[in-house]
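Hello,

Following up on my earlier ticket. Below are the two sequence lines again, exactly as submitted.
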Amino acid sequence: MPFIILIVLLIVCFFVNISLGSVSIPLKAIVNSLIGNATDQETWQLIIQNYRLPKALTAIIVGSGLGISGLLMQTLFRNPLAGPFVLGISSGASLGVALVILGSNIFGGVLAALMISKWGIVLAASLGSFLVLIAVLLVSLKVQDTMAILIIGLMFASITAAIVSVLSFFGSAEQLQQYIFWGFGSLGNLTWDDLIILLSIYSIGLILGIASIKSLNTFLLGENYAKSLGLNLKQSRFLIIIATSLLAGTITAFTGPIAFIGLAIPHLTRQVFNTSNHKILLPAVFLFGAIVMLICDIIAQLPHSDYTLPINAITSLVGAPVVIWLLVRKRKMIF
Amino acid sequence: MTDTNKHIILKTKDLSIGYTSKKSKTVLASSINIELKKGTLVGLIGANGIGKSTLLRTLTNVQNPLSGEVYINNTNLLKYAAIDLAKVLSLVLTEPVASKNMSVLELVALGRQPYTNWIGSLSKRDLEIINKALNQTNITELKHKKCFELSDGQLQKVMITRALAQDTDLIILDEPTTHLDMYHKAYILKLLQRLAIETNKTILFSSHEIDLAIQLCDQLVVMTKTGVVSDAPCNLIKKGTFETLFPKDLIAFDEKTGSFRVKK
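Thanks for your patience. The regenerated structure is below:
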């Protein structure tokens, strides 16, 4: 039953998201355009099909993908504060992107042109997030205290931030601007071709996440119990990490770092559904993430104005109070 | 020969336990030869630091023996695949479960993980076994409660129920009575005694409740500085094994009551 409400809500948000923007387009024209009929004005059709529709689809992918990667991290580390941002995965992606954008003049020539292309950035971001996650995991094998692991994740974030500042110091103004704009986060920069690339990698991550549902549930007991239930710890951990870095890594690559969705959405979902069973949580986080992201994007567009706010700022403005509210209301983050 | 072997669930052969580091080898106990029979309650007792936990870790394949072998159902422990071992051996550990947001039913259902499909769907048979386990430990009325709402004693019963739902010949519990008051210590051990009889499973637990273990167990494995002895409690009393458990300066074993007394 709650699922039906969420699905309806998702569809509503999807349509509202598409109908609002700096150019006001009547609802009838939007419906016509989406079902393939001709609209009264050709520009409306162009705006909807080449800009608003891919952006709304990107919002769904980003919200659900970051939400799920946060859920996977929180269960794997059995820590309510884990998430793509806190564990430094996003910083890893940022470092990768900084290296290709700001460091491209070091490599020079054809290689630089190749690297600065969209594929180059996607690859660098995914690789960066994967490497940071592996580093955090290696540390977590040595250090059992999850609090220490989170602090170490934050330290990784500081180190990557430091390297990025050094790179910015030597980068040109133009490169710097490109990197800063990437850092604002944006859902609207994807062409249909980009969207297909994002969707394919996202799907692989999603499938790996779904395949990990059983092991995620087993991890709720703790690693020693999980092992006694016949779970292959190394393999399960590896799959979960690959899924997370594919999801968080590619999304960050295409849209820039987007904060708080990965941390806040799983908690919101646990509160609403009152369960820890990932068979329910995973699809619910998918829906919640997509809905919240669509709403954040609606706010960011500032309907009927010519301005668009950085999406990263909006998700923080929405996400941080949600986390605070959960803590104050429940006095602890249930997990 | 084969007839008696059939009833032996766990057997060790010249087992030697301890730790190896790069340079040295620390042997905690050696020439351990114990046999646990089907449907019996067995207590493992010994002073702090004597190697109880190490023995349990070795018996459950968490760490390797220094030498010798462990057999479960006549198969060497090291030959088991993880998933097959999970079908003959279940554990109740001292560590708390990671997520206390699970309901009792969800937690107990996780005991069926070795048998379920890729996504963990419970079959009708799985549900039957889960409900039977809940009944056996008398916690059916708790099944929709969240774990964070339970007392320590209730939580321990839930963990035992989860092990029952795993449906293994052997259940090993590491100090199941710590953190419990006197009544619940007796309650949990009495429950284990009843379960061993009712379900015909072999239950091995480590404990510091020596007097309770003497009263309730079919067999005791006693670890002392001179070696590991295993026998029925009354035979051990006759042999005077309990006198050798602790240094003699503070407490003494009283054969008549089967418990330790502080020296006046």
